[in-house]
Amino acid sequence: MTRRIVLAVLALVAAVLGIVAVPLGVITTGQDMRSFQNGTLASATTLANVAEERLDDHVRGPALSRTVRQLSQHGDKVAVLDGAGRQIAGTAVRATASPGVLARADDLRRTISYRSGDSFWVVTPVLRDSGRGGSIGTVVLGRPTAAVDREATVLWGVIAAIATAGLLAAALVAVVLARWVSRPLSKLEMAAREFGDGELGTRAAAETGPIEVRRLAAGFNLMAGRLESLVRGHQATMADVSHQLRTPLAALRLRLDLLAQDSDAATAAEVAGAQEEIARLSRLVNGMLAVARAENIVTQQVSLPLDEVIRTRVAAWLPAADERDVRLEADVEGVAARMGEGQLEQILDNLIATALDVLPAGGTISINARAMSDKATIIVADNGPGMSEQQQKLAFRRFATSNGGGTGLGLAIVDRLTVASGGTVRLSNTPHGGLTVTIELPLARRERAQRRG
Questions:
Q1: Alpha-carbon span 415 to 425, nearest angstrom
Q2: Same domain, 207 and 111
Q3: Which of 147-151, 208-212, 229-233, 246-250 has the highest average model confidence (pLDDT)?
Q4: Across the chain, how many H-helices and E-strands are there?
Q5: pLDDT at 335 over 80
Q6: Helix or strand holding residue 426 (H, E)
Q7: Are residues 324 and 218 in the same domain?
Q8: Can you give the pLDDT at residue 95?
Q9: How many structural domains does the chain have?
Q10: What whole-number distance in Å separates Cα of residue 15 and Cα of residue 114?
Q11: pLDDT of residue 408
Q12: For position 287, which CATH number holds?
């Protein structure tokens, strides 16, 4: 953020300097050059007027020599030519004006000016006072442009120095401003990340930075406090519900067991049916508590090695899979994801249990884990009866089941736990029949940085 603010301020200041300083420099240097040219033209005109007395009236006074000497003292190159092209006065250096320029000025009876090398040249025809007839001579004046060029160089140097100083001052102000704004925002972002990772007591500093950032931090702290109170209340409620429901169910099951021991066959059959309903009710209670816990409890995010967790759960479920004649296999890479501790185990247990309930003998459950882009992908696929598109749309709802003996809470728990960890889960058909569950979880920070690097 600091870099973007600094670059934006520098671009703005550079644009302003380019719009103001560059045209100012161009206008000023152009004005200086025009003043220099006008002065040279005026000097050439004055010299032509003085030369007209010599060429037309044949007055051999000191005026022409004095004017030529004054111009030469300032470094000008001067030549006064008569009508035949002979130099009658001027510096020792012969005028560099080409014969074509001299002829053109004489024919057009007007002044011609041009720049050649390091001098500005003016060729002015000398005309009679009456203005009748051709020219009686030509005045050539060459004035060095070193002074005006030096002034232009100094001017552009001053403009460049001012622009550089302005950019440096703007960069310094932008850095200070950016840090003043970005530091509290970075702390707020870190607090939000920690709060999302399960540290519910995290609060942001609301004493530094602009007033808008302080208000944002105060709003975040208020929200975090209310969410913490809400989550703590849900945790307490779930603990109470778990104790209040499981204890009567356990006592009821114990009484039914005792009743079944001293009853006849008919009564024992009824008691067995009641025990099955009690067991089903216990599963429903446990499932509802698991869903509620996944929805309302924010656990601290930790880095979990997917390969170790998956292999551990596969080993735990292998006896149950062998008992049903179902092959359970895993193909995983060494990749780590960020999740709440114990959540991946619950996800895998629910997926494997759901698949075992519907797979016939000879079925297969395969679990794969890969790192793709910035996500850790876990794919659990089976070759069982699968689900229709309509069933897949409703699969993550509570009590939505395609198996008459299930509770319909397994995939709902998987969905809630995955979303709580910042991931996504989707269902699709396995090629050649069956159901595929694809789970995408955020990679651990170190592994994400390594993959980006």
A1: 6
A2: no
A3: 147-151
A4: 11, 12
A5: yes
A6: strand 424-429
A7: no
A8: 46
A9: 3
A10: 35
A11: 61
A12: 1.10.287
> Does residue 135 have a pLDDT over 60?
yes
Count the Cβ atoms, other than its own, within 10 Å of residue 87.
Answer: 15
Phi-psi region of 432 (alpha: psi -120 to 50; beta: other; left: phi over 0): left
* R_g of the chain, CA atoms, integer Å: 48
- Judge contact between 385 and 354, C-beta under 8 A: no
Give DSSP secondary structure letters for 430-446.
Answer: PTTS-EEEEEEEEBPHH
Give DSSP secondary structure letters for 32-68: HHHHHHHHHHHHHHHHHHHHHHHHHS----SHHHHHH
The 3-state secondary structure of 373-398, one letter per residue: CCEEEEEEEECCCCCCHHHHHHCCCC
Q: Identify the residue with better confidence: 58 or 276.
A: 276
Residue 379 pLDDT: 92
Instruction: Give the pLDDT confidence of 245-278 residue by residue, as tens digits.
Output: 777 777 787 877 777 777 777 777 787 778 777 7
Residue 186 Rama label (left phi>0; alpha psi -120 to 50; beta): alpha
Domain match, 44 and 140 both: yes
Measured CA distances, 367 to 310, 364, 380, 436, 443 (Å): 8, 10, 5, 10, 18
Please answer whether residues 205 and 184 qualify as being in contact, where contact means their C-beta atoms are separated by less than 8 angstroms. yes
Q: Give which of 432, 349, 347 is closest to 384, Cα–Cα.
A: 432
Return the pLDDT at 48.
84
Full-prediction pTM beyond 0.70? no
- Regarding whether 334 and 316 lie in a shared domain, the answer is yes
User: Which runs of consecutive H residues, i.e. helices, occur in 197-336?
Assistant: 211-261, 265-296, 306-323
Place of tokens 């659990």: 380
